[in-house]
Fold Phospholipase B-like.
Amino acid sequence: MKTTQLILCLVLLTVVNCLPYSVVSRNNRWGVVSGRRQNAIAWAQWENKMASTGWTELTVETNGEFEDGSQAYGAGYLEGWLAHEEIYNTSLNFRIKDQPLVPEASQFPSQSLTWMRSQVSQNLDSRYWKHIGLVLQQFDGILAGYNARAPADRKWLDTDLMAIQLITELSDINRTKIQAKPDEFDLHCSSLVKLSADGQRLFAAHNSWTSFTWMLRVYKHFKLNFEEPSTVSYSSYPGVIPSIDDFFITGHNMVVMETTNEVFNDTLFQYVTPQTVPYWVRIMLATRLAKEGKEWVDLFSQYNSGTYNNQWIIVDNKKFVPGKGVSPGALWIAEQIPGYIESGDQTETLRTTGYWASYNVAYYPYIYNVSGYLTESLRSNKSDSLSHSKCPRAQIFARDQGKVSTMADMKDIMRYNQYQSDPLSLGDACNGIAARCDLNVAENGKRASPFGAIDAKITEASLAARQISEAVSGPAWTWQPPFAWTKRWNSPHHGQPQVYDFDWQTMTPRLSS
């Protein structure tokens, strides 16, 4: 029987020097003491290896003897307390103050949070809203843990923490009030699902494209022993609950990834309201609870916020048998726009072509057309770059995916950028599987920016079963010089290494069985 009255909450932490600490709460007042306490509400390990690998690793496990809400709050408190400095630096690196909501939309985040909390309190018997509530309790825990250690001039309100959760959704919220076109240096990604030619291996890989200012990274492992327990490992950022890359490996042997689709049609944003569930909450609910691809899509589709509109790739490794290939349900693809999500089982495509590639162009014809891709391609004279089959990365993936049969091959293709010599890149450093837009020069008519692929993460069926991945932090440097922060780039990079020349790391959760 679970403890329902919290008299003493104990949360074990392990900081960089590997000394154990406990967080205690008497009468709901939390504090940190040294030493491991056996009756902890959760346990954590924090390994800051930014200087040597470009990653910090966070492992959190909760104690199922406590009620679910206390576990969620405790898990959040751990991260906020451990990562308080990195969370503050992340807010600076995300440049939150440089991209505020327009005045007409400034109340949207608080209205959204208030509405979700009201739905949780009004639907106590709902599985869906219970787990929405657990995400919000984790949010509250992060805020409390952060404020417990932050100096007086850095204390946060919930709106401050909400801003970094919503970082990928802010521009879409603004578009409910103003017309705007996506920036070419907006969020992008590359993703590849590859079935080896002999049918023995099934790989899933992702690299995240964004500003290099975002490269203060945390790879997270969570084991939440709720009444419906969940185990999830994923790449992320300090104090940010979801991945936002996105790359997750779940305890149900599924891999969840996405690449962002453009929405050129401003009229769609009429469907974006605070009375929906934002991406950062829906993604955690679906990824924690779903046991198969269709269930994930069904959960994620409820209360669609229409913000952070992506192509979602859900790989169910349970539907793969080495040597026999994939069975229906192995690959689900879902695409979101404001007001609508289209999805389908694309296992047959994976079986017949051997791969599924994703690269920021909508796949489903209805999503493509309603999003305004065709109209924009005619207006901008960029028909090939906005074509699902003819854009540079589509052609590079189609040409090179057949060479992939090992983990080393996957590492090569996900870090691929030979823009100087590859005709498919059109002489543009942004047109690689791993963009390096910082290498462009104005003399060639290309915009240069510290933007591109900031990492790569790869797993395969046999590793995903144990939530293991191979991950590398920083821009690709196999064929290009390593990226370094120099005076050329007047961009915040608090807490980041000066040079990103790191090797691949094996990310393995250190959790109890």
Q: What stands out?
A: The chain is about 30% helix and 25% strand.
